[in-house]
Amino acid sequence: MIIRQETNNDHKEVFSVIESAFKEAEFADHNEQFLVERLRKSDAFIPELSMVAQIDRKIVGHILLTKLKIKNKSNEFDSLALAPVSVLPEFQGKGIGGKLIFESHKKAKELGYNSIILLGHEKYYPRFGYEQAEKYGIELPFDVPKENCMVIELVENGLKGVNGIVEYPKEFNK
Ligand SMILES: CC(C)(COP(=O)(O)OP(=O)(O)OC[C@H]1O[C@@H](n2cnc3c(N)ncnc32)[C@H](O)[C@@H]1OP(=O)(O)O)[C@@H](O)C(=O)NCCC(=O)NCCS
Predict the structure, then answer these.
(1) What is the pLDDT of residues 79-105, one digit of tens each?
(2) I need a surface site. Which of 30, 45, 67, 107 has the fewest CB within 10 A?
(3) For ligand 1, is residue 98 a contact (CB within 6 Å)?
(4) Whose CA is nearest to atom 18 of ligand 1?
């Protein structure tokens, strides 16, 4: 398996990977494939952080990290949203999602980002180093349990002095 940057030629296949991955997913609106299409056209898009997992010539997984802001009364900070991450159902549970997350962290760090924010399952993401956003005084703009609001520091003290409310790209609002 290789993990590489998505290219324009991959869009159709990635669309169906996301659609299939989320088909049976519990906490999903089943429109994640359209979210990715909107984000690709937005200012929040970073081409290097739309990545695919490929086995032979088949795309089996995808991950997208886009720009967001954390804002408080006096400051705003740059960070990234991890959303969504998708693995084809028949390839799940083999570590592909984990590899996509790991490689996206590595690339985000190379590009100079210090942190990532996500809304996700409290049992899955801590293994990659995610912690509750609340610990850092960071709030996500969703009415969801705090256990699901998570952040990771990509570098030591990457969130030092950073707190506030997360402002997602407007494309997340449909
Ligand atoms: C979430 C997802 C990307 C993980 O990819 P994967 O390749 O299956 O994951 P890995 O093989 O790296 O890790 C498997 C582990 O993740 C757990 N896991 C997988 N999906 C999970 C989910 N939605 N919630 C909680 N845990 C999950 C498995 O139980 C397994 O745990 P274990 O190692 O303790 O047995 C994939 O399952 C998927 O596409 N799911 C549907 C879409 C989705 O829910 N995406 C996440 C929201 S953005």
Answers:
(1) 999 999 999 999 999 999 999 999 999
(2) 30
(3) yes
(4) 124
